[in-house]
Specification:
Layout: H1 8-22, H2 26-62
Length: 66
């Protein structure tokens, strides 16, 4: 279904359309914002996994079974 979706020619057409819609000055700003958003999302995911591990460790220390 999606076999030939991301061929180089298709990506060039998408880039050209984006350049026409947003203009050459706005496109780098959009890319920067998108990159920062993805980086922030990845950081929050990794911190969320660490927080869950910390919370479970704190609960086991607060309620010893002995």
């Amino acid at each position: 279904m999606f076999e030939g979706l991301f061929q180089p020619m298709h990506l060039l057409v998408i880039l050209f359309i984006a350049l026409l819609v947003f203009g050459p000055k706005k496109l780098p700003e959009l890319g920067k914002g998108l990159g920062e958003g993805i980086r922030s999302f990845k950081n929050s995911l990794s911190e969320g996994g660490d927080a869950k591990a910390d919370n479970s460790a704190n609960k086991s220390e607060a309620n010893p079974k002995a």
